[in-house]
User: Fold this.
Amino acid sequence: MAKVLVVYATREGQTRKVAERIAKVVERRGHEVVLVDVAHVPRTLKLGSFRGICVGGPIHVGGYPSELLRFVKRYRARLELVPSAFFSVGLAVASRTTDGRAETLVCVDRFVAKSGWSPSRVELVAGAMLYTKYNFFVRWMMRRIAEKAGGDTDVSRDYEYTDWLAVERFAAEFAEAVEGSRLLENPRPTFATA
Assistant:
C-alpha cells in the first residue's frame, strides 16, 4: 500500500469530480489517497510522505489556474522524484468541429514549460458545460462559443462530456506506475565487505 496525493484546481466543480473519481480508483487498489484542492493546501501537508502524486486542473481562457502553477513550481523536485501524472480538464477535448486535443496539448505544453515539471503521464479529459452555474455574461459567452462550434446551446441545463471510463483507465494506469515504483520497495541494507 502506498500513500498517494491527488491535488487539483477547480472552478465550477468538474475537475473536482474527476479528481474524486481518480482517488476512488486508486483507493480501490488498496492505496491511501489524500485529496487536496490546491486553493486550500493544508500547511501540514508533507509531500515527502507520498509515493505518487497526480495533479489536475481546468483550462479557462487558454490556461490553468495560477495557484496550480505555483503549487507545481514549488513542489517540482518531489513531483520529479515519484510517479506523477497530470490531467487536464477542458471543453475543447470534446469539440466536434476542431482538433480540440491538439489545442489542449498546446496549453499542456505551455504549463509544462512554465512549471519546469515533466509529468510521467498526461491525460486529456473532456469537461462539462455548466450553464446553470455560470453568471449571465459567462453563460452568454459560452452559448455563443457552443453555437459557433455546433455544440449544445440549451442554457437551461448542464452538459457533461467527461468520459468516465477513460478517467478510470488513467487512474488505474497511474496506480500501476505507483505500484511499480522502486520507492515502494524496502531494500535490505547492503554492507561493504573488506
Observations:
- The helical segments are 14-28, 66-74, 76-81, 100-115, 136-148, 164-179.
- The beta strands are 3-8, 32-37, 52-58, 84-90, 121-126, 128-129, 159-160.
- The first strand starts at residue 3 and ends at 8.
